[in-house]
From TrEMBL:
InterPro entries: OPA3-like
One Gene Ontology cellular component: mitochondrion
Species assigned in the record: Eutrema salsugineum
Protein name stated in the entry: OPA3-like protein
Keywords, sorted A to Z: Coiled coil
Region annotation (Disordered) ranges: 154-183
Keyword Plastid: no
GO biological process, one term: regulation of lipid metabolic process
Family, per entry: Belongs to the OPA3 family.
Length: 183
């Protein structure tokens, strides 16, 4: 996906840079200060690249380098400026893509952190529930031990009654809850 867009962007930049180069050529002809600036820029670039080439190929570097004529200098400068423009736009696209990617990655990381925090919170809640259930189970085991084996099989007592009442009295209380037992 990115590669076709990069190719399309490069093609668009090259297409845009051609009219830009033509406009630079026209401005170089019209404005003498700009023309002189471009010529000086091209002459310096010519000297630097020629010296580098001589060093790379092992030729003598103390030889005088002939300057370019004005038209070649203007053409070289305009070409160089066009290439610098293309390079700057391409570099800008790369920087933009890296920033976009890092922002996207940061959003993903934030979502992962939030999900992890939610899982931790849920885990803590579950741990609390397990601890509550364990304490209730322990409480039930202690009640069962206190009543003995028969305590497990007995029904739960009504509030306000004691275990010393006779079964007949218990039955009366259950039948007539509004009446008192003294009648």
């Amino acid at each position: 996906m990115v590669l076709p867009l990069m190719k399309l962007g490069t093609l668009a930049v090259k297409t845009i840079s051609k009219p830009l180069a033509s406009q630079l050529k026209h401005q170089a002809k019209v404005h003498p200060k700009f023309r002189q600036f471009i010529i000086n820029f091209a002459q310096r670039n010519h000297r630097i690249t020629t010296q580098m080439q001589r060093r790379i190929y092992g030729h003598a570097t103390d030889v005088e380098i002939r300057p370019l004529d004005e038209e070649k200098a203007v053409q070289a400068a305009v070409d160089l400026i066009g290439e610098l423009f293309i390079f700057a736009v391409g570099g800008g696209v790369v920087v933009f893509e890296v920033q976009r990617s890092s922002r996207s990655e940061a959003r993903k990381e934030e979502a992962r952190k939030q999900e992890l925090e939610e899982l931790r919170t849920k885990d803590e809640e579950l741990e609390k529930q397990v601890a509550d259930l364990k304490s209730k189970l322990l409480e039930l085991e202690q009640l069962a031990k206190a009543r003995g084996l028969t305590g497990i099989f007995q029904l739960r007592q009504q509030p306000g009654t004691t275990g010393s009442e006779k079964p007949a009295e218990k039955g009366n209380q259950l039948k007539n809850p509004g009446e008192s037992s003294s009648s």
